[in-house]
Automatic annotation (TrEMBL):
<dbReference type="InterPro" id="IPR001128">
    <property type="entry name" value="Cyt_P450"/>
</dbReference>
<keyword id="KW-0503">Monooxygenase</keyword>
<keyword id="KW-0479">Metal-binding</keyword>
<keyword id="KW-0560">Oxidoreductase</keyword>
<dbReference type="GO" id="GO:0004497">
    <property type="term" value="F:monooxygenase activity"/>
</dbReference>
<dbReference type="InterPro" id="IPR036396">
    <property type="entry name" value="Cyt_P450_sf"/>
</dbReference>
<protein>
    <submittedName>
        <fullName>Putative cytochrome P450</fullName>
    </submittedName>
</protein>
<dbReference type="InterPro" id="IPR017972">
    <property type="entry name" value="Cyt_P450_CS"/>
</dbReference>
<comment type="similarity">
    <text>Belongs to the cytochrome P450 family.</text>
</comment>
<dbReference type="GO" id="GO:0020037">
    <property type="term" value="F:heme binding"/>
</dbReference>
<dbReference type="InterPro" id="IPR002397">
    <property type="entry name" value="Cyt_P450_B"/>
</dbReference>
<keyword id="KW-0408">Iron</keyword>
<dbReference type="GO" id="GO:0016705">
    <property type="term" value="F:oxidoreductase activity, acting on paired donors, with incorporation or reduction of molecular oxygen"/>
</dbReference>
<keyword id="KW-0349">Heme</keyword>
<dbReference type="Pfam" id="PF00067">
    <property type="entry name" value="p450"/>
</dbReference>
<dbReference type="GO" id="GO:0005506">
    <property type="term" value="F:iron ion binding"/>
</dbReference>
């Protein structure tokens, strides 16, 4: 009796499954998202390494979902904020305020938000500029070096160390923990899950010592002290403490660091736009928003439907998970004409979705913009042109849209 031929792996892959890590590692995500936006803005992907999910790929429905947090939940109890479902092992459940619904989300967010008020941003600006000038002045001219390591990681890790009042000599631990925490591909392998858990426990133990050292001290402007002296976060369980640490570390590290690298890569890719910026540094504030839009350092956030509902004519069932693809919404041509191009004087660049929308919009958005602005301003003062020497090594994952390495060389314009 003849047997039916089994489908090949290639035949089983949904070409519109945009959760595939290789699309981001190989920088091939643009075309499938272009198809999704044109053919199926709300698309049901049945087969993926993360299970079935809905892709929401255009600007308007992303904003719609973000505007209805009671219908589309962020809570860790339903699965959290990434396509990777929490593992059955209880140790992997790490509640954090971005993965909570109201009212607890509001209470915890309110605790840390004073660290990012306009007055605090102004207070930190001088220190941000001092540290940026030190790093830029230490770079070699005419020699190839890794921009990610020497500039992007160092600037953002220093900022995190200041926000947490973290021991300066150990600040690179923050980068290490952020890389392990933000890589959702690790959930596919038992061994890497255990390694990740071990590193996160090391992170928790380190911060527990910091917490204990500050517990009986007067309030100070760092994030740990703010948590200690708040009603909403002073009595967190260990896993919730770890979850909020990971949120603040990844949020403060991966997003800004990858936008700082994306700025260099994008301005090299579009030399006409780089020339605009070099000729008119007054464009820098707008260029920062455009760089963040074009890079979109976090590709998606996940929501879970709490009830049966309808979205763009599609029937969404309670329990369905939806990926809000910020990386695609920021390339929606109906909102951003010529969206694949970085345009430093784009009129509506600030409408980007890279910081999210609604109640979960990034609490540190203004600080990220400050750090990138100061970097570009100090480069302009030095007439520093950073030239990419070869294609970057990229993060192989559908959550953090980032860079591992970018070889560059500096020249003067």
């Amino acid at each position: 009796m003849a047997t039916l031929a089994q489908p090949t792996l290639e035949e089983m892959i949904d070409p519109l499954d945009v959760s595939r890590a290789e699309l981001y590692r190989e920088h091939r995500w643009q075309e499938p998202f272009r198809r999704l936006r044109a053919e199926a803005p709300v698309y049901r992907c049945e087969n993926s390494s993360f299970g079935p999910y809905w892709s929401v790929s255009t600007y308007k429905p992303i904003v719609h979902v973000e505007s209805l947090p009671d219908i589309y939940s962020s809570s860790w109890e339903y699965g959290g904020i990434t396509l990777a479902d929490p593992q059955k092992d209880a140790e992997f459940i790490m509640p954090m305020f971005i993965a909570m619904d109201r009212p607890k989300h509001s209470e915890q967010r309110r605790t840390v938000s004073p660290a990012f008020t306009p007055s605090e941003i102004t207070r930190m600006a001088e220190d941000v500029r001092r540290r940026t000038t030190e790093i830029l002045d230490d770079l070699p001219w005419g020699e190839t070096f890794d921009w990610v390591d020497r500039v992007s990681i160092e600037l953002t890790t220093q900022m995190l160390a200041i926000l947490f009042d973290f021991p300066w000599e150990d600040r690179r631990k923050l980068t290490f923990w952020s890389d392990w925490a933000g890589d959702i591909e690790l959930v596919h392998n038992v061994d890497t899950r255990q390694q990740r858990l071990q590193h996160l426990f090391e992170c928790a133990a380190y911060f527990k010592n910091l917490w204990d050292s500050k517990k009986d001290q007067p309030p100070s402007p760092d994030l740990i002290s703010m948590m200690i002296h708040s009603d909403a976060m002073s009595d967190m369980a260990d896993n919730e403490f770890l979850g909020n640490l990971i949120l603040l570390i990844v949020g403060g590290n991966d997003t800004t660091r990858n936008s700082m690298t994306g700025a260099i890569y994008g301005l090299n890719k579009f030399p006409d736009e780089r020339a605009k910026l070099e000729n008119d540094p007054g464009l820098i504030p707008n260029a920062v928003s455009e760089i963040i839009r074009w890079q979109t350092p976090l590709a998606h956030m996940r929501r879970t439907a709490t009830q049966d509902t309808e979205l763009e004519g599609q029937q969404i069932k309670a329990g369905d998970k939806l990926a809000l693809w910020y990386i695609s919404g920021n390339r929606d041509e109906s909102v951003f004409p010529n969206a694949d191009k970085l345009i430093v004087d784009r009129e509506n660049a600030r409408r980007h979705l890279a910081f999210g929308y609604g109640i979960h919009r990034c609490v540190g958005a203004r600080l990220a913009e400050l750090q990138i602005s100061v970097l570009l301003e100090e480069m302009a003062k030095r007439r520093m042109r950073v030239e990419v020497q070869e294609e970057p090594v990229r993060v192989s994952a559908c959550f953090v849209n980032g860079y591992r390495k970018l070889p560059v060389r500096i020249s003067k314009y």
